[in-house]
Each structure stands twice: as C-alpha cells, then as structure tokens.
C-alpha cells in the first residue's frame, strides 16, 4: 500500500540537512554571550550580557550600521522606481529588442558580484568619479533593481490590461490610473521586492569592497573585526542584529506574496 | 436627426493587417446600434476607435460634431462595458461603480447616492460592499453596466457584454438592456457576433466583413433583403443561390437569397435529394441537393418528414427570392 508518510530515513536526512544549515547560526548567537573575548572557546567558560553594553558604546559599530541602513534604504528606493518603470514597459508594450532588454535587466543578479564590482570600479575610475557613499549606492542598485523588477513584472502580467483601459474610459488620466488602479494592484509585489532588495543590500560585501572608498558598511566592518581580534564577541552581537534585520523583511516578503496566484481583473 | 457618431473614411491598419478599412458610418442620437460580424471582421476595432483606445490610421471620427482626432479616452464623454467587464479587483462594488465620479472629484456622499441609484437601476441594490470576486458572471456584468452609465455618457459602448453569460441570463439581459436604453435615451453601440442578438435588440445593424461594412440596415430589412451573399449567409443562415441557378429561373445573372422557411415541400417544382435531416424542436431542418445547389429547408412540425435519400419537390414564391443586383459575379 502506498503511504503518504515519508520514510523514516528521508525524515532523518531532511532534519540533518536543516540542522547543518542552521545550527552554525546558533553557535554565533551563543558566542555573543561568552565571557572569553580572545578566542572562540567551546563550551563558553561563562555567560554574560556585557558585550551588548560594549557594542552599544562602540562608535564604529554605529557608523557602520547607519551607513548600511542608509545605503540599503536609498538603493531600495532607486530600485523601486526604476524596477517598476522597467517592469511596466516590458509587460505593457511591445517594442523591438524587448526580450533583450528584459534579459539585460536580469543579468546583474546572475553575474558573479566580483565581476559587477570590478567592472563598476573600472568604470568609476575611467569616469573620474571619486569613491563615496553614492558609488556604493549605485553598486547596490544594480542588483536591487533586478529583485524589484522580477516581483513587479510577474504582478503586472497578472493585472489585466483592460483595467487600465477601463480606468481611462472612466475619465482617469495616466497619473490617476497609476495611483488608483495600478499601484493598489502591485503594492504587495513592490513591498515584497523592496524588502528583498533591502535585505540583499544590507549584507552585501563583494560589490561594496570594490565601490566603497574609506567607508565601512556593516558586513565589511565585520570582516575587518575578524582579522583584528579585539573584543571578539562584539562581532557576534552585531551578527545577531544583522540576522534579525535581514530575516524580518524576508519573512514579511514571504507572507505578502503568498496566496496571490489569481489573475487580477480577469474573472468572469 | 442629430448624428452621434460619424466615421468618414476611417481606416486602422496594424502593419499589413487592415483591421478597419475605409469605413463610413453614421450613428444617430438615441439609437441602439449593433455592429455584427465574425471575429476579426473589425467590429471591435471600430468600437475601440470610438472609445479612443485606438487612433485611426486614416479618416476622421466625430462625436456630436466634435473631431475626436486628438481627444484622449479620458476626455471623451463615452463609456464602455468591457467584454471581460474589467472590474477593479481591489475595490468593492460601490467603489467600482463610483470610480468615474471619484475621478471627477465628487464628494463621498454624492458618489454614494449616485452609485446606490445606479445599482438599483441594474437590480443590484444591497450588493455594494461585496468584492467583484464574490459576484456571479451576471452580477459582474450588471456592475460593469452601472459603472459605465453613472457618468451619464453621450454614447455607451458595449463590447460583446453578454458573451460570457448562459442562454437564459443572456435573453433576460437583452430585454433589460433594451429597456434601460429607452429609459436613459443614451446612444448605445453594441458589438456582437451573435446575429440573433443583433436582430432582436438593435434599431439598426452594421454587418462587418473583413474590415469593411457589408450592409447597414434595420434588422427587418437585413433579414429580408440582404445585399450580399455574405450578409445573407451570416444573418440567419439564408440560402444563397448562385447566379447560373438564378438565371434559369428569373433570367437575371445575379446571386439571390432565399430564406429556409420560405421553401415549401410540394408535389411539383424543383426536384432534389434529401441529404440530411435534423430535428430542431419547433421544426425539422433538411438539407436538400438540387444538382449543384444545396438548399436548407425548414419543415414545420405538422408536416411529415421525408427520409434521407428520398427525392422531394421544392417550391417557393418568386417574391421570396431576393436577387442581389449590386453584386458582381
């Protein structure tokens, strides 16, 4: 008889696989509470909360954190605007080279970050643009746009074209149609795309190393900390924060795009 | 007579496809006008030209004397009932119906009142707070109608609005649309591929074929005096008699149309062999072969039905045979 229950061996394998992916994360969390600050010693000789206070007092942590938040926010805003416009153009109109443009928009996320990074760095050098906050933002925007575009284009395809015509027919100009018909129908897709873009930007290292000047985003600050051991558990406290800051938006994006499989405005 | 919509030499070409080709058309104010034709005949493109979703490649369109050349859809006093209804899925029924008034900047109370009245008119009072996804096909159709008439358009366009409904509901809506049109006095332009629908509802019908208009006439005229073989065949599946056959009878070398119900089975006349017999309920439809011509004959329920393969004699009044003299052979 065929059974719906998975075989015992498969269950063990699945649990082992998940544990392999997630237990190391727990290890990082535990080290955030250790009393040993020179090396990672297992089991921790004692537990303490003092590193949270130490981290709170460290100027460099705050600088890196605020830089990362600013970069991620601005990249996300740029991605939302450009990604939505691009998705609208690709899904609403037909023009010569449409498929090619669509592919070229998606390409940056398929390319290894190191190639994006090197090419941007050479381009900035060639154009004599000094490395700054804005060069980091530009670097991040290249892949953030893709995430927003992918979410928006899927939703645009599901919003029936006659909705736009119906709105125009009832007296709404393009702006009013966008505001009252298109935006409400693509809002959750944009929110989901924006959150993913924010999370991607927030923990990006490779492109950032090539496009940043003297500034340190949070992930880069963490890399530096690892090679210069000083108050090691501070890194772990920060790591916990990064995990939480990136995990929440991804969870949110997951819930927002669930159960939206039906095509808007196509029911009869 | 005031002309509501006027087409002068209007064409709309998509690349090499002539969707609409050199169409002249006058639709009178307050008229219930049907555009009838098979799919791809250009009738829907004509409707979209009036709404402004398409721009003519050549020619001019006037609505109540005003040239529509540079007028975008949202500035035309024309509203459309879309084939797929195009209700806004994120808005409830009230907000869907009141959308036009909201855009026009009317206050919430005015909108609410007008939307309630419009819903009452289409017999959907009390459904205001539902979402379109919670309505049946017929109810959505009524919401789309209420949404289109709330702005009091000068012309109402209906793009196969009854196509998605079942037969019973369709017949009911046909009645209601006619009543509504008389009540509102708005010019209705109705696109359909269903000749029965066009004949029963419209004041005048334009029959479209391959991007042009084959004939514009009242339903009665269209049924009794089709001007081309296409119209005769498409409007009520008339028999089209080829020119050589007609020449033998009346001497003129033109094709002619002959309604199936005008043909009697009698003891003498044109001999033919019965090829098929289909029972329709109110009558039996026979397919009878006379040499090179195959005629469709309706045999009333009271008559005895011949068998397949039997030779029978057909006769008809020569006045029922309509010779299409305008057609080149």
TrEMBL record, chain A:
Q: Which InterPro entries match?
A: Bact_Polyamine_Transport (IPR051789), MetI-like (IPR000515), MetI-like_sf (IPR035906)
Q: Which family does it belong to?
A: Belongs to the binding-protein-dependent transport system permease family. CysTW subfamily.
Where are the bilayer-spanning segments? Answer: 12-33, 71-91, 103-123, 129-149, 182-202, 237-256
Q: Mind telling me which SUPFAM superfamilies this protein's record contains? A: MetI-like
Per the annotation, which location comes first and is thus the protein's main one? Answer: membrane
Specify the superkingdom.
Bacteria
Residues forming the ABC transmembrane type-1 domain are: 65-253
Which keywords belong to this entry?
Answer: Cell membrane, Membrane, Transmembrane, Transmembrane helix, Transport
List the protein's name: ABC transporter permease
CDD domains tied to this protein: TM_PBP2
Which Pfam families does this one have? BPD_transp_1
The subcellular localization recorded is: Cell membrane
Q: What topology does the record note for this protein and the membrane?
A: Multi-pass membrane protein
UniProtKB/TrEMBL annotation, chain B:
In its UniProt entry, the species of origin is given as: Parasulfitobacter algicola
Sorted keywords for this record are: ATP-binding, Nucleotide-binding, Transport
Annotated GO MF terms:
ATP binding
Q: Which Gene3D superfamilies match?
A: P-loop containing nucleotide triphosphate hydrolases (3.40.50.300)
InterPro entries, per the entry: AAA+_ATPase, ABC_SmlMolc_Importer, ABC_transporter-like_ATP-bd, ABC_transporter-like_CS, Mo/tungstate-bd_C_term_dom, P-loop_NTPase, Transp-assoc_OB_typ2
Coiled-coil ranges from the UniProt annotation? none
Q: What is this protein called?
A: ABC transporter ATP-binding protein
Domain of life assignment: Bacteria
Check the record and name the PROSITE patterns matching this protein.
ABC_TRANSPORTER_1, ABC_TRANSPORTER_2
SMART domains with a match to the protein in the record: AAA
Q: Which residues cross the membrane?
A: none
User: Where's the ABC transporter domain?
Assistant: 5-235
Q: Name one Pfam family in it.
A: ABC_tran
